Every structure is written in structure tokens, then in C-alpha cells.
Amino acid sequence: MAILNDNTILQYLDSLLKYNSFTKASEDLYISQPYLTQVVKKTEKHIGVKIIDRGNNQIRLTEAGRLYYKYLTENVEHTNNFINQLNEFTQKKNSVIKIGVLSTLGSFLLPQFLPKFIKNHPDVKIELEEASPEISVEKAIKGQINFYIGQTPATVRPQLECEVRGHEPYYFMIPKTSKYYHPDQKFVNIESVDIEKLLQEPLLLTCAGSAIRQQINFLTHKFKTNPIIVLESTNIETIASLSAKGIGSTIIPATVAMHLDEGEYNLCPLPQDILSLDYFLAYAKERNLSPNEKDMIETFKKINIIECTQKEGWPKFSELR
């Protein structure tokens, strides 16, 4: 097994310290737990010192580990600065802006601000890289893309700066097959349902590691329930469509609910203090932003998420709570 680059090792250590668990960190990193353990052991063998202390059921850096972490951080920052300086010579400044985004997220969020930016900057070429979040994060940190658009800013790596827009509401989707289904009603008020009991229903969820799944995991932990998961998918729209057909209940963002086919199901809005979805535009902290990049950030900050998620003919979200 080859030694990984400094940036990847730093990412692994960040997740370990954040989640205090090899299992949870590996899920966040989309790698296996044995592989993560092997990386740590291989790194310790390579530099000749122990960097992780697992005593007292807590994962901490040893004194040598803290020194190594500082070395990694400084080395990654120096590398990113060097790449940014080289970019000044290898391409015409400000002529291209590269954006990394998940395709399902981009289809909703990009139309809310990109047309206005393009209209004001016809000389700027926009390049979209529709990739998984972990790939876009890596490219943003390394300066290979200008921006990364994502959701759930709490999960963002410390090397990135975020501009946050929110909050998109969530709906609990209750199909006809649920005993908590309200006949002849599209929408049900939060006061008419028991969230804890709904979470004990058969559920359809996105796969572990996704931003939405992380939030739902927090919700089940808050209500101290063990979810009965009947099916998982990487695509939230697939989950919603199957729930509409009665396979199980689920929790979906308003942007997904807006595009559902008619069916026999209820939509129950969840209060923002229970669950909501924030979006962000992220970029490497060490980068010196161009005027065009700064203007893109300002354009992004003007998005009104609530207006974007209000379907014509539907009651306002505030009226359902």
C-alpha cells in the first residue's frame, strides 16, 4: 500500500477527529473502516511515531501527531498557494470559472443565480464539473476548480470558506400504506402527527454518507429511534417516487417534493429547528479571489431559497406549521 498524499491524509485525520470514530469517519470519507485503519498504521510506520491515541474511548492526536498535523496543514497550504500562482501564467485570468456540483443539486440551484451572472459577465466562460461531493471538495482545496456548490455546510472541510444560503424546508412524506396517513389530504399540519412514531415506520432513505442521510441520522438520534430501513438509494428522487407508491415513508427536501407526481400520500412540513437544508458556495481559503469570482459569490448570496421552493398553488410553508 503506497503512502497517500498529504492532502488525503489530512482529510482522513480531520474526519477521525470530527467523528471520534473510525467507523463514522470511514462512512463520511466513502472508504471502508479497515482501509482507514490501515492508512493510519501505514502512516505511523512510515514516519516512525504514533500519531493517534485511542485511549478512554476518545480519538486524539498524540504530541507527535499534533506536530505532524501542523506539518500537513502547512504543506497543503503551501502547495495550494503554489498552484494558484502558477495559474496566473497558465491561463488568462478570470476568463474561466469552474464549478463543481452534484448533478441533482445543480439542476435546482444553478438556475437560481447562474443566468444572472452570465448576463452580467458574457466574457466569462463557465465550466461545470458534475461530480460527487468528495471529488469536488478535493478539487476545490487543490485549486483545480474555483467553487464547489454543496449542502449541509457543517460537513465542509476546514480548508474551505463557505457562503451559505438557506433554509430549504423538509417534508415528511407519508404514503397511503402508513397507518398515520390522512385520507383526502395533500398536506398535514405538524401538530396532527407524531414525529417520533413516524420515524419508527418503515423508511426509505438515501445511502449512508450522503448529506441528507447525515441530517436524518441526527433526527433519529434526537428522537432516540432505531429506523426500520426497507430500502436505500443514492438518488433522493428515486426514494421519493418509491415512497409515493407506498413502499415506505421518507423525508425529502421541498425541491424534490415540488416535482413529485400526484399520488395518495401526505406531505408534512418539518420545523426548521428540527430539520432544514442549507446550501453553500465553497472555495479554498488561501485563494485570492478575482473580481469576477467575488461577483459570483455576491450573486449566489441573493438567492431566496424559500421563494425557490414555493410551488404555485401550494400553501405557504409557514401556513402549514
TrEMBL record:
GO CC, alphabetical: cytosol
PROSITE patterns documented for this protein: HTH_LYSR
Coiled coil residues, start to end: none
Domain HTH lysR-type: 10-62
A GO MF term: DNA binding
Superkingdom of the organism of origin: Bacteria
Keywords: DNA-binding, Transcription, Transcription regulation
InterPro entries on file: HTH-type_LysR_regulators, LysR_HTH_N, LysR_subst-bd, WH-like_DNA-bd_sf, WH_DNA-bd_sf
Stated family: Belongs to the LysR transcriptional regulatory family.
Protein name: Transcription regulator
